[in-house]
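User: Fold this one for me? It's Endophilin-B2.
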Amino acid sequence: MEFNVKKLASDAGVFFSRAMQFTEEKLGQAEKTELDAHFENLLARADCTKNWTEKILRQTEVLLQPNPSARVEEFLYEKLDRKVPSRVTNGELLAQYMTEAANDFGPGTPYGKTLIKVGETQRRLGAAEREFIRSASISFLTPLRNFLEGDWRTISKERRILQNRRLDLDACKARLKKAKAAEAKAAAEHELRLTQTEFDRQAEVTRLLLEGISSTHVNHLRCLHEFVESQTNYYAQCYQFMLDLQKQLGSSKGEIFSGTFVGNAESASPAAAASPPVAAATLPAVPTIPVVPTIVGVPNTVAEGVLNPNEVKPPASGTRRARVLYDYEAADSTELALLADEMITVYSLPGMDPDWLIGERGNQKGKVPVTYLELLS
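Assistant: Here's what I get for Endophilin-B2.
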């Protein structure tokens, strides 16, 4: 008990001495041992690394999880060392709602079919988002957290010890200056030598840790490349999913609007031809795509599923011009590759899928998707 009291008194004396030295330095009444310029640069670089790492970490967490309540929940689970429960992404939740709505509206209706298609794509987008968040957390967020909670805490601890050693050293220097008697000077010089040794040793330890910041930058650079790779793969997947969905929706769109810009002479019934026009004054006149008539004895290559562009001839009733909205890469030799904003000639064939037209550009000819075109009068 007596030893503990003495140690407590000694620690209190050291603390009081350091506080006095620090206060006098701030007031300009005491000298301060300055660190060399290289050491000061290392300190500034370490502080800069810590500050920007914290900002990048926090903003990346916001990017991956915009919901602040969810971030707080994940933080608590992490501090409690418990596994974070799996959370449904917004895309997966939207997919669930669309699928349930399609079942209520009727999965066989045009709207129901489209809801199912879009819902499936949203589910795939949600799964891709989940995988991106998992990958980014492992490859990018975890190394940043490890630096802040591991290396930086060690650096901060050693810097505090170095600060205390410096205060002790300067206090010893001040006592040596105030010493008058020879014995007091000798004791002060001995204490100064010991304190200087401890300060130099601690300064070397802290310097080594600060120089390790360069290795931290190299590690974070590698993690940043992995984060960009994960983000690239995620957006590439999303882009491909949406392209696939756009092609799938072309069929539904063609069924809905085929009567507007695709004419088929074989599908017109006598009753429909004899019926009078309804609300002709209110409906805009929309020209139709000329249709190649079916000739008896000539095989219908489109109906058989095989199109030979060399055998297709423009209809006698004429053709239409169309502007290409997006680039399109031909899937096979029967299709025509398209470039955005170019003008081509188009027409339809009997029995042909309403989502497709025959396109001509100079001597080139092939099938083109309707959804990629803007039909001109």
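One thing worth pointing out: The chain has eight helices and five strands.
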